[in-house]
Amino acid sequence: MSLSTSKPTPINTIYCVGRSYVEHIHELNNGIPAEPLVFLKPNSSIITGDTLTLPDFSENVHHETELVLLIGENKQIIAYTVGLDLTARDVQDVCKTKGLPWLKAKGFKGACWLGEFKPFTQKQYHLSLTINGETRQDDSTEKMMYSFDYLVDYLDNLYGIQTGDIIMTGSPKGVGKIERGDKLVVRIDDDRYELRAQ
C-alpha cells in the first residue's frame, strides 16, 4: 500500500505505543509504564476511506484517536496523519486477565484507520473526535509522555526502524465505545474526516 506523500512509501511495520498520555492511563486504571508499551498491528488491519466495519466477535469496540508518524530514509519522520486505533476492549480485557497477546483485540481487519499523510513538521498537533456531534476526544500531543524523536530512537534501538514504518503514538483521554450507525468526525489540526461505523 502506498501513501499520499511527495514520494509514495509502502507501509512496512505498524508500531503502536500504548499508555503514552497520563490522563488516558488513569481513565483505564492502568499503571504508568517505566518505558513505552509497544505492540504491533498487521498491515492487513489498515483501512482508509469513510467506513469503519466493526467486528462481529466484539460487543465493545473502542475508538482511540492518535497522531501517526511515517518513517522515511535515514530513520527520519517524513509525514504524519491522524489514525484510529480500534480496540475490541472486551476481548482485550480477557487477554489481559489470562496473560495472552492482544492481537485479536488490536489487529482485526479494519482496526487501523488512517487519514491522508502530509509532510511532517516538528510541532505539537491537536487531535479531536466527535461521535454523533458529541465531543469524545479533544487534546494536544503536548501531553504525550514521550517526544517524537525519543519514540523513534527507542524503537530503532530495540527493533531497527526502517523506511515505511509507521508509529501510532498513543491516544489521549476520552476513549469510548463505537456503535454501528455512529457518525464520527476525526480531526488533526485543520484536517477533518467524516466516517460512519457499520
Structure classification: alpha+beta
Rg over C-alpha atoms, rounded to the nearest angstrom: 16 Å
How far from one another are the termini? Answer: 24 Å
Report strand %.
35-45%
**In percent, how helical is the residue content?**
10-25%
Number of strands: 16
Oligomer: single chain
Order of helices and strands: EHEEEEEEEHHEEEEHEEEE
pLDDT average, as an integer? 92
* Morphology: globular
Q: What is the makeup of the main sheet? A: 8 strands, mixed
| Number of H/I helices | 4
Low-confidence stretches: 1-5
Notable features of this structure?
198 residues; alpha+beta; 5-stranded mixed beta sheet; 4 helices; 16 strands; globular; disordered N terminus; Fumarylacetoacetase-like_C; Fumarylacetoacetase-like C-terminal domain-containing protein; metal-binding; Fumarylacetoacetase_C_sf
What's this entry about, in short?
This protein is an alpha+beta fold and about 200 residues long. The protein has 4 helices and 16 strands. The model is unreliable at about 1-5 (pLDDT under 50).
Structural commentary:
The protein is an alpha+beta fold. The chain is 16% helix and 36% strand. The chain has four helices and 16 strands. The strands form three sheets. Strands 1, 2, 3, 6, 7, 9, 10 and 13 form an eight-stranded mixed sheet that branches. It has a five-stranded mixed sheet with strand order 4-16-15-11-12, with no helix packed on it. The two termini are 24 Å apart. This is Fumarylacetoacetase-like C-terminal domain-containing protein. Keywords: Metal-binding. InterPro entries: Fumarylacetoacetase-like_C, Fumarylacetoacetase_C_sf.
